[in-house]
Amino acid sequence: MRVFPAQQTRTRVDATLAVSPASPSVDDELTFTGGGFTPGDGITVVVTSPYAVSWFGGPAEADGSYSSSEYGSYVALEAGGYKAEAYQSSDKKPDASVEFTVA
Fold first, then answer.
1. What sign for the dihedral angle of Cα 7, 10, 13, 17?
2. For the residues of 72-103, what is the DSSP string, one character each?
3. Beta strand pairing call for 29-35 and 74-75
4. d(Cα 58, Cα 5) in Å, to the nearest integer?
5. pTM here?
6. Where are the domains of the chain?
7. At residue 9, what are phi and psi to the nearest 5 degrees?
8. What average pLDDT is seen over the chain?
C-alpha cells in the first residue's frame, strides 16, 4: 500500500500526560500537564468522564511541554473512572494518555 504525504502522520512516542491532583475528588479543579510534544504545535486534550466527553487545548511550549492551567480549567463533576488523551500528531491516535479515578 502506498502512503501519500497527506496521509502520513507523526507519532510522538515520547509524549507524556499527567493529571493533578493525582487522587482527585468531585469538584476538584484538574490540571493536565505533559511533555515531549512538538514545540509550537497545537495539542487537543480529550477527557472522557462518566457523564460527558470534553475537549480543550493550546500550543506546546518551546520546550515541548503543555499545561492546561494556561488555557482554563476542568472540574471533575462526578465520581468514577476518567481517561484523558492528548492529540497532536494525529486526530485518530493519541500521543499520550492517562487514566484516573475521581472519588
1. negative
2. --EE--S-EEEEEEEESS-SSS-SEEEEEEE-
3. antiparallel
4. 25
5. 0.84
6. 9-102
7. -130, 150
8. 88
Do you know the residue count of the chain? 103
pLDDT per position as a tens digit, 4-54: 444 444 444 589 999 999 999 999 999 999 999 999 999 999 999 999 999
Q: Report the pLDDT averaged over residues 66-90.
A: 93
Give domain 9-102's CATH superfamily: Macroglobulin (MG2) domain (2.60.40.1930)
Which residue has cell 512538538?
38
* Cα distances (Å, whole numbers) of residue 52 to 17, 23, 79, 93: 20, 20, 12, 20
**Peptide linkage before 21 cis (omega within 30 of 0):** yes
Could you give the CA distance from residue 6 to residue 93 in angstroms, rounded to a whole number? 16
